[in-house]
Amino acid sequence: NAGVTQTPKFQVLKTGQSMTLQCAQDMNHEYMSWYRQDPGMGLRLIHYSVGAGITDQGEVPNGYNVSRSTTEDFPLRLLSAAPSQTSVYFCASSSAPLGGREQYFGPGTRLTVT
Amino acid sequence: ILNVEQSPQSLHVQEGDSTNFTCSFPSSNFYALHWYRWETAKSPEALFVMTLNGDEKKKGRISATLNTKEGYSYLYIKGSQPEDSATYLCAFANAGGTSYGKLTFGQGTILTVHP
After folding, report:
1. In the predicted model, what is the mean pLDDT of residues B47-55?
2. What is the pLDDT of residue A22?
C-alpha cells in the first residue's frame, strides 16, 4: 500500500513552459486535493475533486488546471508557468469530503520557475 | 477566505517541558477541526480530526481540545522530546457558503525541543 504518490519530486521550469504534476493514491479515496505551500503561509487549496469526473476550484486556482478521469489519479497542470508558481505542491486524499476525515498527503513536488 | 490563526508562530522549549499551542477559527458553520504534524522534509501527518464541541482527543503525550462556540482549539504536548520538533498545523472545515467542504489551514506553529 503506497498511499499517495507524487512525481516528480523536483522540477525546474522556464517561464511560459507547461507541465503536469502527477498524483496517485491506492486507498480508493474519492476525495483528492492539491495544495501549494509558500514560506510564511499555510497550505492553500488549489483545486479539489470529490470523485471521478468532478472537480472544483479552491482558494488559488488561477494558472492551474485539473481533471479526474479515474479514482486513483488527479494530475495538476500548469498551463504557462510563472515565477509566482514557484512553490512546494502537495497532493492529498481522504475517504470523505467536507473535511470530516483525515487527509493523507503525498511527499510533495518542489517546483522552481525561472 | 476564512481566517484560521495559529499562535505562537514558533516556540522553543527544553526537553521535558510541557507546552501548548492555539488554533483560532470562525465560530459559525463549523464542520471539523484537524491537527497535523509536519516534520522537516516529510509530508504532513494527521494527529486528530475533531467534530464535536467539547471534544478531547489524545495520542500518547499529545492531546487536543475543541471549543466550537468560541472558535478555538488547543494542542498540548506533555513532556516534550526532541523528536516532537516539527510544525503543527491546524485546519478548519467549513459547513457552509462558498468554502463548503474545503479545508483552510493555519500558518502553523514551529516547535523546537532542545535536548
Report:
1. 94
2. 98
For residue A2, the model assigns a pLDDT of 82
Q: Is residue B90 within 8 Å of residue B34, measured between CB atoms?
A: yes
Residues of A in contact with B34 (CB under 8 A): 99, 102-103
Size of interface A-B (CB pairs under 8 A): 69
Q: How far apart are CA B36 and CA A71, in angstroms?
A: 25
Does B74 touch chain A if contact means CB atoms closer than 8 Å?
no
Average pLDDT estimate for B90-102: 77
Tell me, letter by letter, the H, E, C secondary structure of B40-74.
CCCCCEEEEEECCCCCEEEECCEEEEEECCCCEEE
Backbone angles phi, psi at A52, to 5 degrees: -55, 130
Q: What's the pLDDT score for residue A88?
A: 96
C-alpha cell at A93: 486524499
Q: Among A106, A79, A91, A96, which residue's Cα sits nearest to residue A34?
A: A91
Q: Which residues make Cβ contacts (< 8 Å) with residue A41, sequence separation at least 6?
A: B107
| H/E segment holding residue A56 | strand A54-57
Supply the mean pLDDT for chain B: 93
